[in-house]
Amino acid sequence: MALRFATGPVLGAGLSLFALGGLNAAAQEVDSGKAAKPAATQTEPPPQQTLTGDWGGIRTTLHNMGIDVTGGYKGEFLGNISGDMPRQETHSGELDAAATIDAAKLWGLHGGVLQTTLTLREGEPPPGGLLQQSEEVYGRGNILRLTEFWWRQKLLDDKLTIKFGRLPQGDFNGFTCDFVNLTFCGAPAGNLVGSYWYNWPIAQWAALARYDFGEYDVAAGVYEVNPQVLDLQFSPGWFNGATGAMGHFELGWTPKFGPQGLVGHYQVGVWDDTAGNPDVLIGANGRPFALTNLPPLHRADSYGVYVQGFQQITGVGAYDGDSGWKDKQGLSLFFNFTQADRETSTLDNQFTVGATYVGLSAQRPDDAVGLAAGRTDYNSRAAEAMLLATPGIQVPTAEYPIELFYSAQLTPWWDLRPDLQYVIHPGGFAKAPDEALIGFRTDVKF
Known about the structure:
Strand content: over 45%
Largest sheet: 16 strands, antiparallel, barrel
CATH class: Mainly Beta
Number of domains: 1
Number of strands: 21
Structural class: mainly beta
Oligomer: single chain
Radius of gyration: 22 Å
Helix content: under 10%
């Protein structure tokens, strides 16, 4: 595989941190939320938390200085075992490397954090021919990217959080990646309208702020809109190639229910992309472009809304706006609903529900099982354009994936996750035979 870079002038600063050594899996949009277990007793050595250990004490020394160097590899391996698509077994993976600086420890600046993350993706298109990929870690090019280079500052007794730099858009509409199918992983809006909302590992210049009012929080942010960030040879400059800006606004609620203080987190948000996008049906003269061969009408804005929630039903859990879910144990339920505008979005809405259970037995306290189901809708206006262009063809309507996984925490640094997916109406085609896929995911912390 030829190694290509999408880093540019900011890379020098990023590499200065990366050169400290190590790799990062924990820097992704909060993945499993599992916490490392502390040592059982002082006489017992603590279990090794990473594959490469403490590097002869170097990691501990750096941590005490305020520098954490972390990393890992996530690999996903799937094959389709039924359906109309040709039989195919594929793999995709991501190698992450990061350094996090605690500014209070290193420089005496309370509440400051500097984050640098590099990602290297590899692999091949996953099987299935689905509206949403069966392997979430695939995509955006097999290249090295500067995925994060940002500063986060806490102010006003840590109630106000300001963050700016090069960021993916997962700070808004963000969701965990416990599952392998993209339907149930990451910010759902970015999975629907990925032509302009860029999830991990794509970064843009951005700034955001969040204020916490106890159980409630409000957040707003603005991201550059720059199609060049998808270019495999793109170098991030100072808004070089930007075509507009995307604004975000989100309200969050983090309640605790009952005597056990069961934690939930619910959020509702809106977005607006001022660069706009082409209409999926109407041409420049107001008639369907499939009939006139004119270019699509350019809409000045692309927008949408979402509501999502995650609730602990049994056990314990913790949530904060910076790191998301952690220390999860017991049964948790979730839902997501996202609606994009129908003028510019080929996939215009998605709804998912699911459950995870962590701590299946006292002997396997970190093992987990998850089950989720969803629906991704193909915009009927986009389908109408296809019918006008080719009368009589079958057009997509909606796709219904179901996923079941078992997560075996073999060591504190290695998780092995067998996975089964069953997709009704794959690709959104009602007459297509259902698709079944089987495989596994592996996560290793270096």
